[in-house]
Amino acid sequence: MVEVILKNVTKKFEEVVAVDNVSFKVREGEILTLLGPSGCGKSTTLRTIAGFYFPDSGKIYFGEKDITNMPPQKRNAAMVFQNYALWPHMSVKDNVTYGLKLRKVGREEQHRRAFDSLKMVQMEKFMDRMPLKLSGGQQQRVAVARCLVVNPDVLLMDEPLSNLDAKLRIETRRDIRDLVKELDLTAIYVTHDQEEALSISDYIVIMDQGRIRQTGKPREIWEHPENAFVGTFIGEANLLEFSVKSTQDGTGLLEIVKTNRILKTTFIKELEIGKKARVVLRPDKFEVDITEDPNANQLPGRVRAIMYHGTFERLTVRLTDGSDVVVYRTETEVPIKVRQNVYLRVKPEHVLAFGPTAY
Amino acid sequence: MASFTARKYLKMVKAEFDPLSLFLLLSVLAFFILFLVIPVVTILITAFIIDGQFSFKFFVDVFKNPIYFELDIGSFIFISSFGLVIFFASRLVGTIKNKGFDFVSLLIPSCYTIVTIIIVLLFSDALTSVPQCIFGIILALLFLGIGIIVNKSIKHELDHFFLNTALKPTLTLLVGIPVVTFLFVILLAASSQLLQIYDSFDLELITFISMIGAIIVGIISSFLYSQQFSKDLLSSSFLKPFFWLFFTCIILMTPFLFSNYDFIVEGWRINFFNKVPDPQYGYILIFAGIEASVLVNTIFVAIATTFISAILGIFFAFVIARYEFFGKSLIRAVLLFPLVVPPFVGAIGIKRMLAHPQGYSFFNRLFYDAIPILQFPIILKGLTAVILVQSVHFYTLIYLNSLSAFQNIDPTLEESSENLGASGSKLFRSITFPLALPGIAAGSILTFILSVEDLGTPLIFSGDVEIQNLLTTKVFTLWQDQLGTLQGDGLALAVILFVIAMTGFAFIRKYVGIREYAMVSKGGVFNPRTRKISIIPTLLIMVSVVLLMSFALLPHIGSFFLSVSDNFTWDVTNSKHLFPTSISFKLLSPDIGDLIRVISIPTLWILGWLILYFLYRLLKNYVKLPDPNVNPKTAYSFLIIAFLLPVVISIILSEISRIFIPPLEPIKDGLNLGIGNLTTEIVGQIGEITNLEFLAAIKEVGGFSNIISRTSMYAFIAMILIILLGVAAAYILARKEFPGKFAFDTLVTSPIAIPGIIVGFGLFIYYIPALVGLLGREYQVEEIIPGFYLVHFLLIASFTVRRFPFTVRAAYAGLQQTHVTFEEASTNLGASNLHTILRITIPLIAISVIAGAMISFVYALGEVSTSLILLGSEAQATIPWMINEKNSDPLPHEGILGVNEAAALGVLLILLQVIIISIANSILKRRGSALTGI
Q1: B657 vs B498, which has greater pLDDT?
Q2: Angle at CA A308, nearest 5°, toward A305 and A313?
Q3: Phi, psi dihedral angles at A152 (to 5 degrees)
């Protein structure tokens, strides 16, 4: 169990910059998730930590130790692969003891440790099976056991759940988190699934186009996105373009383009007066009013479609400037019809406004 | 700048390569540079150097010498149409590959036709001198240039215009132009005969009529390129007129087949059907093909072989790929049989079956004597015989490649076409054929190359003068005449041979790189479309397949007969039998000691293979096989058929001939069908030693068992080297990215195309002096260790180099199917690179490597050209060398003719190869095209 530190790591493939000046720190015993859309460089970052790629510049430390140019064999950073990479010509037991044999562990000890680590993932009954005879979920567990058995300094996981079905994924991610916490491991987890990231991590690094867009705890990321990209990437969100009328330490007035509607906000990032701003509005933060209230923070619009989702109604509302907004409406006592004019009320703290430098 | 680039390059290499893979790369490179690049380059360079001066003299000599090359009208038309075919083929494949259409291919053919017409019209009389030829070529290039410029300037419109209809005119021309050119030459000959203008027939006339042909083609093609015509004319029935024309011509020409007709245009003797008077029969009809200069002959043979092979191969492949019918697995197995038999073994057989030099062939005995259908005996000789032998062997290359191609077409592509309303031939032409074309093209080009570089087949027929006029035989004869050196003409011809083969290889590289091969082989994810068919189509298919197949198996049946009977030879007095009447099964009950001696070594190899194979079968459950649908049944049926069929056929035929066919009176003097007077013959044979003594023959010579074990041993050593270096090369190719990878890839796969005689010459010329200098003069003739001569060292090197691509292909495919994360997971847990390769990579790809190595081994056993060039005496001989030696030995030894011994050795070779190939094939299964090395 060590701390992992990346300092200004850059990795290019020919002319394409896959990882661009990335720095972060994983504290001992923490789970850090690299989150981002596909092609954002998160897997490359992970593979750089594992030693399959060497960075073009920057440094990687495990604790005090500089491992930037250390070959992968010596890093003791066990990795769970997306396709599990269980060797099909070896039994489950041989797969798990492979790392122990390399570490010259005695036969008895090998067996005991393999059994223990397989027991942790409830796979001890399958020791003599061949990997291809196991289901996807079982293979995934064996792959985790194969990593745990060597007492790695760092556990690396590259989208380990993406080949499982939805229900199993939720179960397994809970199991993984429990296991990692129980063993007090430092873990780095890669996923493109924001829900998975929010639930499994202590810390999230959001990446896009090779660069880090935000680093923070799950709640911070959710509630205080630093830029429009993070705001829209996490959860369903409406992205609108307003122009900025005025700003004033921490609050601001926004004007919908081409209309005279003014929206108040208390969440502003680098707004400039007179310039455009991107505004992120989460669908569950709206109240739907039927009447206009000049003092409230309202956006007028007309309902275009209503979809029933059980716990809420999903409204698509066209605003006066022509843009569409998605609204989740949980209180449905007052019925609303399609083509009805409505006023969407939103609290100033839920209007997330980003200036041009915080796109 | 240079140092900067070098440093950058070094940095890249350093980043990509760990010490181990760098070592692997360097060792492969070192081997190839030592044993391929240096020898071949030496030959190429020597051909340009006279007295230390750079010179083209050798080439000028070759092109001035009418034996090698003569630019007469016939050759000119022929070469023109050949160029056109190559051009169209490449454009066509390129078109399909790029999914778009390169418009340049539209006007260039028209220009080409026009240029040909103009050149022939204007310069036909004068084209025999070099400066005028050069002028003509410059003119042609000028026209091409104009065509390209015109096209470039209106590219956009043209592109838009022809995008959808371009494929078909190209196809039409591909088929149409050579057919038409060919037709007109033949038509001309026929009409001259018909109109009794034989004497007055002159150059102007042939030019004129050829022109009309070419003009018609030009007009048709230009019509095809205009929109209104392309829409109507290019619908399904367009090709029909060509075929009608062709068949009409054949019908018109039939009378001439039986008239004496020999017709010469400036050295271009067109005597496909040459009826010559014969004192014994009255007349004999000789099929000899053309007789022109060396270069034209060579290209003619290659084109004809490719054409016939393509027809056979595509037909079989389509039937096998698309239909389900009774007996399919059987047919599948038999179809592969010719692949494993070296053509020159088959040549021995076909010579007796169809091409007996005096007309005493099986075919004539059957259809002239026994069942008198023919008016005259027919003799196949010259280029026709070579074409026939090569075609019935090399069709397997096209068959396997097309089969893979057909089977790897995603069925949804065809289904969506059907869904939109296409069916039958429309479906085949618009979807299936274009998608399969890269595979077909690759197989065809390979056939072309192998036909050009084939030395064994022409050597078997080397009694005919036309065959001495082929590139390989010419070079080989010059080599022998000059006592093991190569000078002047020989060098220049070798270089020309090399250039022809490498041009073909460049085409293959362009269309089927090693990467795409792997892509093609990933076909396991869907079930190929096969259709169950009802009884009548099944019968039709069976009949046609069986007919074609029995034609394709003629050489092998012939070889088998020859190997089991000494009264089935081309010795005149012994050739009177229709079937071998004295089959000896001493083969099955020989002296135990001999048997053990003769077959022990090969048996050990085979046993070794079988043990390895079954070990892997055992592991199969959890080893990820290259193809999960491995079906050993085919392999076994193949094996059984391959061994038993010829035996059964010969027994049955002999028995039938004894029982059912009544004795025939001699029809002509001195001829007896051989199935008459059986009793006396059998009685007679008991007294004499006329039985075939297959093993006895081997025993007499004494050295055969040594030869067999020597060949297998050297092939085996080569195979071990191939495995070591091949896995290394495949690993580098599959797992590393570095600048120069394409060149490396090309280098390790090029031996498939480099003619064997050139590798042989190169090794001999370069290394013998060096090694003799190093070891001492006496080793030039003496053994180094008992049984091992200096040349054997080079022989093993040549085996290794020449058969390398087969293993690399197989290993590469294995690596492609093994995800790289398996290896990463291992290094991640702390394993060194070497440990990872040994414990993870090699076990996972072992089965592919073994299959590939088996193929390499088998082909090394049958390696003709380097054996013939490197080896000098019986004490050094390999099986192919001995077969050639025995075959050219006219004198009988202890009552057994050399040809029978040659055939016996040939059958032994087949025996070894069939077993190994059938195992390899059952492993590779759907990736059967790996057997062809591309």
Answers
A1: B498
A2: 75
A3: -70, 150
Given the structure tokens 């048996």, which residue do they identify?
A: B603
For residue B15, give the nearest of A209, A18, A11, A75 by alpha carbon. Answer: A11
List, for residues A312-342, the tens digit of each pLDDT value. 888 899 888 778 888 888 877 778 888 888 8
Q: Mention every residue, 6+ apart, whose C-beta is less than 8 A from residue B588.
A: none
Q: What is the DSSP letter of B896?
A: B
Written as six digits, the tokens of B427 are 């479906």
Number of domains making up chain B: 3
Q: Does B829 touch chain A (CB under 8 A)?
A: yes
Average pLDDT over chain A, rounded to an integer: 86
Query: What ipTM was assigned to the predicted interfaces of this complex?
Result: 0.79
B625 CB-near residues (< 8 Å, 6+ apart): B847, B923
pTM equals 0.71
- Cβ atoms of B810 and B849 within 8 Å: the answer is yes
Q: Which domain holds residue B289?
A: 267-564
Does B554 share its domain with B573? no
pLDDT band at B661 (very low <50, low <70, confident <90, very high): very low
pLDDT band with cut points at 50, 70 and 90 for residue B176: very low
**Computed from CA positions of residues B318, B321, B324, B325, in that sequence, does the dihedral angle turn out positive or negative?**
positive
Mark whether B220 and B286 lie in a shared domain.
Answer: no
First to last CA, chain A: 37
SS3 call for B751: helix
Q: Show the tokens assigned to B307.
A: 């054409």
* Contact status of B223 with chain A (Cβ, < 8 Å): no
Task: Check if the beta carbon of residue B715 is closer than 8 Å to that of residue B806.
Answer: no
CA distance B102 to B170: 12
| Residue range A118-129: mean pLDDT, rounded | 88
- Partner residue facing B819 (CB), from A54, A85, A99: A85
Sign of CA dihedral B83, B85, B88, B94: negative
What lies within 8 Å, CB to CB, of B544 at 6+ separation is none
| Residue linked to tokens 């001995």 | B882
Taking CB atoms and an 8 Å limit, are B621 and A130 in contact across chains? yes
Contact B824 A50 (CB under 8 A): yes
Q: Which of B235, B258, B281 is where one domain is finished? A: B258
Residue of B nearest to A91 (CA): B622
More confident residue, B748 or B674: B748
Q: How many residues does chain A have?
A: 359
Domain boundaries, chain A: 4-229, 238-358
Q: Which residues pair with A78 in a beta bridge?
A: A155
The domain defined by A4-229 carries CATH number 3.40.50.300: yes
Q: Which residues of B touch A52 (CB under 8 A)?
A: 824, 827
| Predicted local confidence at residue B923, as pLDDT | 63
pLDDT for residue B671 is more than 90:
no
Q: Which helix (H) or strand (E) holds B384?
A: helix B382-407
Between residues A250 and B854, which one has the greater pLDDT? Answer: B854
Question: Average pLDDT of B279-285?
Answer: 71
Whichever domain contains B278, its CATH number is: 1.10.3720.10
Domain A238-358 has CATH 2.40.50.140: yes
Looking at beta carbons, which residues of chain B come within 8 Å of A85? 819, 821-822, 824-825
Amino acid (one-letter) located at B376? F
DSSP string computed for B3-66: HHHHHHHHHHHHHH--HHHHHHHHHHHHHHIIIIIHHHHHHHHHTTEETTEE--HHHHHHHH-T
pLDDT one-digit tens code per residue, B858-880: 888 888 888 888 887 777 888 88
Does residue B11 lie in a domain region?
no
d(CA B175, CA B109): 13
High-pLDDT (> 90) share of chain B, %: 3
Chain A residue with Cα closest to B18: A71
- Provide the b/e sequence for A3-12 (b: ≥16 CB within 10 Å): bbbbbebbbe
Three-class secondary structure of residue B618 per DSSP: helix
